[in-house]
Design goal:
transport; cell membrane; globular; membrane; single chain; mainly alpha; transmembrane; cell inner membrane; 16 helices
Length: 371
């Protein structure tokens, strides 16, 4: 019962994460990858949908911060570790956060993904690369945390300081409703306007929904993430199980039941169109569009496994670096953007963001030089 009590909000948060990522996949044929969105902006190849996702995550954090007193009181839970965001002024703490950002930035660029793209979305689709990446970065993160914890105990928030209380406030449903309002707006636009006209706004709303899911699941708190890495210890925090059960679990069901059949049919028709003569090609094209993503904006399934299934040294190395950075400070790209939106003047989160951006840019330049 105690674990179920601790998982109440994380399960709701995981459902929000699944709603956002599955909707982006079904409606637009795209993977919700937080690190990929940031890296694409750094590379100079402007893609409006990537920018929309980054802005949605960031301003989603800003919206949570505006309503923070009400939300935290109604749900009896803290959404951010203010000791890191507001009081991280010591050079040692800033150095740790900067190093974490460097490792996560380099690792997610080299390994082509992070917790959202690989673990939450890729594993749900059965992507071999995503399974391999997650099987590397997750144990590496746990090992990194367990090794360095004795040395950083006094510098970073600890899991045993977290107080999980069942939310009994009558205002709790209203708080959940407010956090889920971006997703309701997304579907309102879907029902009342063409997908092409509001693609940018709808993608941003999914980013904001994802931000709410990260906050509810505890992933915007490094102490919760690091606490999850404390397996078999008395103060282990099970919150991230909510992401696995409600987030990954729901994504698996949606993909198998709804998306995968369309992708298989779409792929087969794509091959038939390439071989068809002029008399039959028009009919095939109509059927092809029926099995494309639900939105008329995008007629392609932009799934990495359709073009790359190779598990190489680059993927393993990048995933290991990502795991080291994640295990060092408990911050990954999505929660980093949400925290930046909530606390834009935080020296601590800017140290992490700076490290991420520098490493991502260097990895991008190095990759281009090799080509």
């Amino acid at each position: 019962m105690e674990i179920l009590q601790k998982l109440e909000l994380p399960l709701i948060g995981g459902a929000f994460l699944a709603a956002a990522s599955s909707s982006l996949l079904y409606d637009y044929g795209r993977v919700l990858g937080c690190s990929g969105a940031i890296h694409s902006l750094l590379s100079g190849t402007y893609q409006s949908n990537k920018l929309a996702l980054v802005l949605g995550l960031t301003f989603g954090g800003s919206g949570i911060r505006i309503g923070l007193p009400f939300l935290e009181k109604s749900l009896s839970r803290s959404f951010f570790d203010t000791s890191v965001l507001l009081h991280a002024n010591h050079w040692q703490v800033l150095s740790i956060l900067g190093l974490s950002g460097l490792l996560v930035g380099a690792g997610s660029k080299i390994g082509s993904g992070c917790t959202s793209g690989h673990m939450l979305c890729g594993m749900a689709r059965g992507s071999k690369r995503s399974w391999a990446a997650t099987m590397v970065f997750f144990p590496v993160a746990i090992l990194t945390h367990r090794i360095i914890k004795p040395f950083l105990y006094a510098l970073l928030p600890q899991s045993h300081s977290i107080n999980h209380v069942a939310f009994e406030s009558k205002l709790a449903p209203l708080a959940i409703f407010l956090l889920g309002s971006p997703y309701l707006l997304y579907h309102l636009l879907k029902l009342t306007a063409s997908s092409k006209r509001f693609e940018f706004l709808r993608t941003a709303l999914l980013g904001a929904t994802f931000a709410s899911g990260l906050a509810l699941s505890g992933m915007t708190r490094p102490s919760v993430v690091l606490g999850f890495f404390d397996f078999f210890l008395p103060f282990w925090d099970p919150s991230l199980l909510g992401v696995a059960l409600a987030g990954l679990g729901t994504n698996i069901l949606v993909y198998l039941a709804v998306v995968k059949p369309k992708v298989i049919k779409w792929n087969r028709l794509k091959e038939e169109i390439s071989k068809a003569d002029d008399l039959t090609i028009e009919g095939l094209r109509q059927s092809f569009l029926v099995h494309a993503p639900n939105s008329c904006v995008q007629s392609e399934w932009q799934l990495p496994e359709l073009s790359n299934t190779t598990i190489d040294r680059k993927l393993i190395l990048g995933s290991a670096l990502f795991g080291m950075g994640w295990g060092l400070a408990g911050i990954c790209p999505g929660p980093g953007l949400v925290s930046l939106g909530a606390y834009p003047l935080s020296l601590g989160i800017w140290s992490w963001i700076a490290g991420f951006l520098v490493a991502g840019k260097l990895a991008s330049v190095e990759s281009r030089l090799r080509m």
